[in-house]
Design a protein that fits this description.
single chain, mainly alpha, flat
Length: about 180
Amino acid sequence: MQNKQNDSLAEVGQTATDMPASPRPWWLGIAVILMGCVCLYATTTLPATAQYAAIGPGMFVTVAGAGLVLLGILLLVQISRGEQFAAQDTENATGDMPMDKPAFFTAVAATIVPALTMETLGLPITAMISFTLVARAFGSKKTIIDLITGAILGGLCWFLFSRLGLQLGGFLPVAGF
């Protein structure tokens, strides 16, 4: 990464020492560690094993929390070594482009929908709505296809989870199923 940055600086006649020193984002590493600690704290109320399997819901949250703590520590090490955190170009965007706010808020809405609709509409319809919102956030214009795909995936997930003995509520509670 350093060579790439130095090469691009050489093209415009600058060196790495000419660039203004940016403040080190210590808060970012600390925030990641705190998120991991919240996950680890949450595992105190979740069982690590389940009656039907050796791995329970607490195991996944524990692994995620430990991973976040480890990644936060690694991030702090990188920051202490002076690693530069700058926007980088991607496949279809340059690093200096502003955030696509409508796409971001559409994706946020897709994460909120399940909390608001799962009990009343059921998994298939909730998955259909969330899938369509995420697809729209990524630029899909095929709303009907996205709705059908989300409904099929949600229905299939509900069926497979019910075959495993997990209760996800009714298939379509609003219709009495």
